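User: Fold this, then the next.

Assistant: Folding the first:
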Amino acid sequence: MERSSPADWRAVRRRRLAAEIVIVLGLSLGASAVYSIVSLVAKLTANTSLASQSTSLNGALSTREWLDFTYQFLAIVFDLAPVALAFYLLAISGVNPFRKVGFDLRSPARDAARGMLLVLVIGVPGIALYFIGRAAGITVNVVPAPIDAYWWTVPMLVASALRAALTEELIVVGYLFTRLRQLGWGRWQIIAAAAVLRGSYHLYQGIGPFLGNVVMGVVFGWCYTRWGRTMPLVIAHWIIDIASFVGYAWAVATFPELFRLP
């Protein structure tokens, strides 16, 4: 019987890792990226300009309160299943996934400080980039969900922000960086690929958010390769999305004249 050589085993392992990555992304943000690309194509081929179109953020899923709550709660829970899958796959490969990607409570004060720094570096310029994109006609009007619909609306939006932070940072950074390194990819190859992926699933908002999220992906990816921890990224992403989901909705409702393009 012919024995497999070490090179054969490495080739098999690489194919398995590549297939695993495709499956995890296909069940999560890779699928979101494909739908976003299709959405952008639909917007660009419509009879109206990109700037005159809009997309809703965290819109209601039912006109009945209890159903809206149930659908939104279940969406958050099931959207976190791919995160659990990614961590499970890392665990059965012989590592502690929480420690491997730096998602633990070993240094909470440092993680919080680094997270706040990233909010200032990424969050504030991101707001400016949105309005620049709107003025340039490359970003659609993002319509936030009203924050006064029900008593549970704001807590649900905060939970949705956490869902986005966990899904994006733990899959696109923690899991994907680990697997691509095991495939032999270089540091900047990984950072660039993950950044483009991050931007691509925001394409439904237009070209501006794509570019902004690519920049965010480069910064977050570089920080992860320096710090070896996703916890600061999750903290920063959570705060930025709370500001987007809750703060932006409040600002639009309170100062509508500031958000009207001339």
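Now the next one, as you asked:
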Amino acid sequence: MKPATMRETLFEHFAGRSTALQRTMIADWLQEPANQTQYVAWLDEWEQQHLQYLADEDTAFHQLTSRIEAWKQQQQPVYEPDQLPTIRPLISRPWWLAAAVVTLCLLAGGYAGREKLLYQTVETAFGETRQVILPDGSQVTLNAHSSLRIPRFGFVNKTRAVWLTGEAAFSVKHTLTHQRFVVHTNRGVEVEVLGTEFDVYDRPGGTKVVLSKGAIQLNYTNTAKPIRQLRLKPGDAVQVDSAGHLTQTHTAEPEISTAWLNHRFVFKSTSVREIAELLRDTYNLRVVLKNSDLASRTVTGSFEANNADEFLQVVAELLEINYKQKDNTVTFFE
């Protein structure tokens, strides 16, 4: 069957208007793993068009599996001792098989299957930036080599929650219901806002949050200490290093934290070691220093670079050094 025809058939099925023959055809079609992925994608599309969002994801998910199980139990006939079961023809294969196959696929990995159904992840490659418009109208711009996990069916709970790895600039819209917006990171740093603009950096070397506009509450959970709550105002910056140590500073130029949105790099006594980390995180380049004393040398200045080649040329000129590149390895030398 052509994809367009199958899509129409599934849309009728989602609306509860499929026939027994169509349900059997869908069950057969779902035997292919690739079709199971397409099923979820079309289900997502249909749900978005018909706004059938669920207010409680956990309860709804359990209700779905309970309904399917209850229906299966109802379909098992009870026989009298002297009564033999009747063999059903193939055409009457249970209609719930299509839904059951998808549900079992999603549950095969336990919690991971549920996560795949309820959430989607937006990613950027090395050297790429990407803007994402969230269901509430908030804007997120992902920096290179970053990912953002968001609810697949929109924000339906009291909290608008997203999960970030890498770096992103957020412009969060305030809602009429004062729905809070929370950004989760991998180092126990949680940013809570109602409507504001800020940058979140979450890389292997540490996590940093810089507030440009509005106000945010930063919650930091550390296994060694109780949760810390900090109220940030514009210009405030909080950094957590790889060892879990938190420091708070203030800058008169918070916009520098999002200079990367315009492919600009701003350095203020930035060490070559820090530049090496930036090259690794942004362009997937490994830096080798021919002279160990190069690591402590610093750069001050700002410039625009649209790719790794432009970046390397400018940095080499500022440091007055040479470099050579082979594949993903860059060597700095005098």
